[in-house]
Structure formats: C-alpha cells, structure tokens
Amino acid sequence: MQKEMDLNAFKKEAEQKLAANKTLGKNLRKVKPRMLDELFQEAHFETFEKMDCLTCANCCKTTSPIFKQGDIARMAKAVKMKTAVFIDHYLHLDQEGDYVLNEAPCPFLAADNTCICYESRPTACREYPHTDRKKIKQLINLSVRNTLVCPAVLNIFDKINAKLNS
Questions:
Q1: pTM (global) more than 0.90
Q2: How far apart are CA 143 and CA 136, in angstroms?
Q3: How much is the mean pLDDT over the chain?
Q4: Residue of 62, 85, 74, 84 whose CA lies nearest to 117
C-alpha cells in the first residue's frame, strides 16, 4: 500500500489550479466527443495504475453520493435495517430532491479508509470519479468540481492539459 495522501497539500494545489481547470473544462467542450472520451479514459487508466484510493478516501471524507432507491435498499439490507429506518438514520433530501448522507465523513468509512459496506455501496460510489465513462462531455462541470475532491481527477486534468498543450 502507498503512503497516506497529504490532503492539506492536495487541497492547496487543487485550489491553485481551479481557475486553469475551469478554463480547461470550457475548452474540452469544444473537443469531439469520441476524442474527449479517449483522452479521459487514457488519463484515467494511467492515473489509476499508480494511485490507490485507500491512501486518500477524500471523497468519502468530504462529500456524499446520491442514493437511488436501489442503493438505499441494498445498504439498508447490508446494515440489517429496514429501509425507512436507514433513511431516517443516515439520509436526507438535498435541494435537488436526491437522497444524500446527513454528514461527512461517510458513516461507513472505516479508519483504514475502507468501506464497511463496500459490496453494497451506492452506484455513485462504484462509478466515482466518473472519469472513465463514455459521453464524458456531459460530466465536464462535475469533473472540474471533482478536481477539488479527488487527487486522481486533478492528476487526470493535468495529464489532459499536458497532452493538449504538447
């Protein structure tokens, strides 16, 4: 396992690069969808060959996934609760009408950065940080915001920026 990530240093770096990443995000909207998908997927796989999420877990420490009904049912079963009790105990509706966690860090995050409900985790957690998906153009704004949460996404933006400027 890799050394624990310095999240303070990451946060400082991410904030310093935010304006440039917003500009990059605007420029990426002009790239043909298929080429954009290829750029993101290549940078995603290069990044995750070297990064281990268990050294960070900043997503679990600072944000909440959206819980769909299937996610709620799966998680409630995993923690041996009725669905309504699970919702009352762990979730609330946000401004968009989506179920999200009441608090951060995630109550299912263990001290070693693992998820105690990993096999039952929400779809949004399974797919995070979404940088290997097709039709990534639809997720550019989310990906720019995720540069502030996920060191891997920040690295992916650095790789794409370098490639476009080479």
A1: yes
A2: 9
A3: 96
A4: 74
